[in-house]
Amino acid sequence: MEVQYSKPVFVGLGIVGPDSLEIISEFISLICITVLAAALGSKTFGEKLKTINYGRVMVILLYFLSWSFATTSAVIVSTNNNNMTSCTLGMLSCDIFYAGSKIVVYAWLIERIHLVTAVKTSRLKTRIYRFHLVLLCPYVIIFALMLAFRNIYLEPDGKCTIGLQLIASVPLLCYDFILNLYLTWLFMAPLMNVGLTSRANWKRSRLYKLARRTLVSSIVSLLISFANVLVVVITQGHERGLVCLTMCTVDVTINAVVVHWVTTNRGGNSKDTRNKTFHNTDHLSAELTFDAPAETGDKQPKFAFASIHDSKSNEDDEDDSESIRSTQISQLSAKPLHNY
């Protein structure tokens, strides 16, 4: 009896082992994790619970969410191929951690606007603060669209493809760009008004440096986030999973880094600064960074820009009187001062 053998069947296993893009993605994720961990450690070093206010909580929460996303992204990318579960988790991490970091950035910007605009008024009693909280509500709808209209599937070769459909990506692009631009302008306007109406040297003040850093960081964050979401719109939500995760990881890391740059005072030691008595301009710029003195009560210090003008005028008057006094001394001396 002749035994017949069936022909061998070859099953395509798709991608086996990491390819070059996966290795690059893992390397970028590790760099982002390291940078975010260093920023979080630097910002929380020496902090005490009594010095942690609402603005600082937002900054620390931003670091934590960004670090969590970068860590999750590194794990998911390594298991992304031929794995529908990992592919789905990658999309969920983009929806949850990326959207969460954006909400925290918006809340941080709203808090900074409150510090430079509201005087002797609590947050919820301020109309503009309540209005800005209402502006965050459309993001709930956008988040629902991100969960409902998304692409998650495996290519024939096993590659994971994820992304947002146009009905979700276009509103996200418009909302993020317009709200970021509006909040940045609203924060910059009072600071620039102080500089234009001040008699002192505005460009040498801490507020000018803070305003300049805020403007630069806002432009960088705006361009990075716009480019990231624009790629999603152009591809219509059909990106390879590791590419999408890597771009979002770089996006949140750059946003966290620029926030760290803005909220870090490079002029001196923060521990020494907190033990000093601040002028109004220094106190304001310190409160917007991590250098403000510890609060003794529940109330948050408010800053009157009118007192800033008064203090600067007094400084100018003192400088004028000093110059007059030095001129009189030079005229009475046997040897004029300009000959020294």
UniProtKB/TrEMBL annotation:
Coiled-coil annotated spans: none
UniProt keywords, alphabetically: Membrane, Transmembrane, Transmembrane helix
Keyword Membrane among UniProt keywords: yes
Region Disordered: start-end pairs: 306-340
Annotated signal peptide: none
Transmembrane segments: 23-42, 54-77, 89-110, 131-154, 166-194, 215-234, 240-262
PANTHER family per UniProt: G-PROTEIN COUPLED RECEPTORS FAMILY 3 PROFILE DOMAIN-CONTAINING PROTEIN (PTHR38848)
This protein's name: Uncharacterized protein
Species in which this protein is naturally found: Mucor saturninus
Lineage: Eukaryota, Fungi, Fungi incertae sedis, Mucoromycota, Mucoromycotina
